[in-house]
Write a sequence for this structure.
């Protein structure tokens, strides 16, 4: 039976309005509206074929069981006011597909279980320290945050939206935490976004998306988690120039602006000095183009999954076919984290993974 919910998901992923899709598929908008609202339960095959072709989705996709839909209030969008309805809906639809992909993988591999503790009653900075202790990280820099998250049971996916309006967001699906990263941003910013979302996961599971106070708390958590004050004091007790920030940021994998803020919060620079550093950072253009950019962190979990599959000559195209998806949706969800899913692995510490 035709599944109208999947038609809506596909349209949202392509960021098309009903009018735009109707025009592209050469069907009437009334016909499309009747299909999406359920007034037409059994559309003609020619109509379904035209819609599938316009969306570049396999026809079979529209006959599968319902997709699990993530509600706006359940996702930690940083600022809904900066998002268009199309951008918001495309991101939420990406979550629906990520849930489906996660289930597909979980049915074939034993993935790491969630190790996200409840720290809702902690101060953000105290929560950052508590989570570091819980995960055995001490006060040293986290070399690859995505690898750590995956090892702790967080499912990390990428967002393919080519704009900066869609920030990273996180959500819970039962006992499994998910984080979605906008890989259009700099590697340093994506890393901070990931830490920000960890803050939401450990402190705000029962919070309200878009709450400015909660966003501020998540920022404070991220800053303390990535740059522990004791490590900052030990390795960068004083700063006299932006060039020192550029050199120092390499240790913690944060932007120069974020590092300057950490120094101010730790009391290592005065309010006047911090404002002067910020002015200089802006004048040098470092807020839009990060100096000495770090390499983007990659996913070891998804790389390892596809390595196992590739041993049986199963690549992303075969996975997409098994899911009845277009291949580009596989690439959109995991390709942005490390590139071609059929490549061999790079050396790195890997999360535990077993084939079922």
């Amino acid at each position: 039976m035709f599944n109208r919910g999947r038609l809506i998901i596909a349209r949202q992923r392509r960021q098309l309005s009903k009018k735009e899709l109707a025009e592209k598929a050469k069907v009437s908008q009334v016909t499309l509206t009747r299909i999406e609202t359920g007034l037409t339960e059994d559309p003609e095959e020619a109509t379904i074929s035209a819609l599938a072709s316009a969306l570049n989705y396999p026809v079979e996709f529209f006959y599968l069981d319902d997709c699990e839909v993530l509600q706006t209030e359940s996702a930690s969008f940083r600022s809904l006011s900066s998002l268009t309805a199309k951008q918001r809906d495309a991101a939420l639809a990406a979550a629906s597909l990520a849930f489906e992909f996660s289930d597909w993988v979980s049915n074939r591999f034993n993935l790491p279980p969630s190790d996200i503790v409840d720290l809702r009653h902690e101060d953000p900075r105290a929560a950052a320290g508590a989570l570091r202790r819980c995960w055995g990280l001490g006060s040293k820099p986290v070399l690859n945050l995505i690898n750590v998250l995956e090892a702790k049971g967080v499912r990390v996916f990428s967002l393919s939206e080519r704009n900066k309006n869609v920030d990273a967001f996180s959500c819970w699906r039962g006992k499994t935490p998910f984080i979605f990263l906008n890989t259009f941003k700099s590697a340093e910013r994506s890393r901070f976004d990931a830490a920000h979302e960890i803050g939401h996961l450990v402190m705000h599971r029962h919070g309200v998306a878009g709450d400015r106070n909660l966003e501020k708390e998540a920022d404070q958590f991220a800053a303390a988690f990535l740059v522990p004050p004791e490590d900052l004091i030990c390795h960068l007790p004083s700063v006299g120039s932006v060039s020192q920030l550029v050199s120092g940021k390499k240790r913690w994998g944060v932007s120069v602006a974020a590092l300057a803020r950490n120094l101010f919060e730790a009391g290592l620079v005065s309010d006047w000095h911090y404002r002067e550093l910020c002015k200089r950072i802006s004048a040098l253009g470092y807020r839009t183009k990060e100096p000495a950019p770090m390499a983007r962190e990659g996913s070891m979990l998804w790389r390892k999954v596809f390595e196992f599959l590739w041993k049986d000559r199963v690549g992303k195209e075969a996975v997409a076919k098994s899911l009845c998806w277009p291949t580009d949706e596989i690439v959109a969800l995991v390709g942005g984290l490390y590139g071609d899913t059929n490549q061999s692995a790079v050396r790195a510490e890997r999360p535990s993974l077993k084939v079922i």
